[in-house]
Structures are given as C-alpha cells and as structure tokens.
Design a protein that fits this description.
There is one protein chain. The chain is α+β, with helices and mostly antiparallel strands and 81 residues long. 43% of the residues lie in helices and 42% in strands. The chain is built from two helices and three strands, in the order αβαββ. Strands 1-3-2 form a three-stranded antiparallel beta sheet. Strand 2 and strand 3 form a beta hairpin. The longest helix has 18 residues.
Length: 81
C-alpha cells in the first residue's frame, strides 16, 4: 500500500516539472512618432524575452505618454522552457 501511495504522489508531481515557467518582461521606446515609440517598446520587450530563451506569448499592457518625445512602455507575458 505504501509503494502505491508513493507512485501516486510521484505521478502527480512529474507533470509539474514539465510545465513551462511564465515571466513578465517590459520594454521601453521613445520617438517623435507615437507608432515608432510603441513599435520600439514592443521590440525591446520581445528581445528581452528571447534573450532569456523564452517565447513571447502575448502583450499584457502598453502605455504611451507625451513629453518632448513620445514615451512608450510594453509589458509582455513570456514563456520559458
């Protein structure tokens, strides 16, 4: 009975190790053009995800602010193996 319980516990724990980790990365961009600033912010976030060996899954949030330049931030969910 004890070995059966151990086998069940191990069977439940093994799939947890196969699940990929999900992290959040952010990117920043600035330009005189709002479209270019947002594009740069997205590229920065995707680059940070890829640099860690991950795959960008989806953009969670983006924000733009007007100062002397357009400032953009983009936050992405990234899946690591």
């Amino acid at each position: 009975m004890k070995t059966r319980s151990c086998a069940i516990v191990l069977a439940l724990l093994l799939p947890l190790h196969a699940v990929a980790a999900t992290i959040t990365v952010s990117g920043h961009g600035q330009s005189y053009d709002p479209g270019i600033a947002l594009e740069d912010a997205r590229a920065d976030a995707v680059g940070k995800c890829s640099a860690q060996g991950g795959t960008p899954v989806e953009e969670v949030y983006n924000h733009m602010t007007r100062a002397n330049l357009w400032l953009a931030d983009s936050i992405w969910r990234c899946e690591l193996p």
